[in-house]
What we know:
The protein is α/β, with parallel strands linked by helices. It has a single domain (about 5-240), classed as Rossmann fold (3-Layer(aba) Sandwich). Helices cover about 40% and strands about 15% of the residues. The chain has ten helices and eight strands. It has helices at about 20-25, 50-65, 80-90, 115-130, 140-145, 150-160, 165-170, 205-210, 225-230, 230-240, and strands at about 5-10, 30-35, 70-75, 95-100, 135, 165, 185-190, 215-220. Strands 2-1-3-4-7-8 form a six-stranded parallel beta sheet, sandwiched between helices. It has a two-stranded antiparallel sheet with strand order 5-6. α1 (about 20-25) packs across α10 and α2 packs across α3. The chain is globular and about 45 Å long. It starts with a strand and ends with a helix.
Amino acid sequence: MYMNFVILHGSWADASQFDEVAAELRKLGHNVYVPEFPGHGVLSNDKNVTHQQITDAVVDYIQKNDLKHIVLLGHSFGGTVVATVAQEIPDRIDRLVFSNAFAPLDGQSLYDQLPPPVQATFKQLADTSGDNTIMLPFPLFRDAFANTASLEEAKAMYGKITPEPASPLFQKLDLKKFYSLQIPKSYINLTEDIALPPGPFAWHTNQSSHLGFYRYIEGDGDHFTTFHMNPKMIADKFVEAGRE
């Protein structure tokens, strides 16, 4: 049975992050929609955006396209948007999928989910940017976000990223309604993804445990590379996570 995927990208990314995966899902007969966030990609002219503006943009996109029976899937930062969007339009969503994604508890921010050394780095980068953005230094991107890539592949991916608006990462989120919803959830964990390092802050089981009951899907890959280098495997994991 075909599914209606709405895929939400993460930080230092844009809708093009999922071009190859979307193509594989469409080959399988699924509908795929990848909205662009304000402050990102083709909408990156104004970096002074809030988490609410991103949420509103995704809700507006879904409503304008009259999308229903959605598998709403978020990667990384996109997990926080999955949660806030689900609160707005729960009746349009059949399943929520978190792909190595943040799932803050009520009243928390994405920033609250980070290990203290990463918090300090992000705060310093935002404070010294001059426009409240965070640009990943290449060594951090290479080792934590593209650790399975060759050096050439990592450089090519890094060349496409732009500074990330900082405000949405620091905003405390009211997620009381999200945690009361009865929409089924799935968590995809790529085991080589160390953007959140192994230990108490790991994607699984730290972020995943916030969701309560969920379907667990596991695969190989890192935070950025695998979407481009093995999109068929990723598409298969997305289908496994989204099925009834």
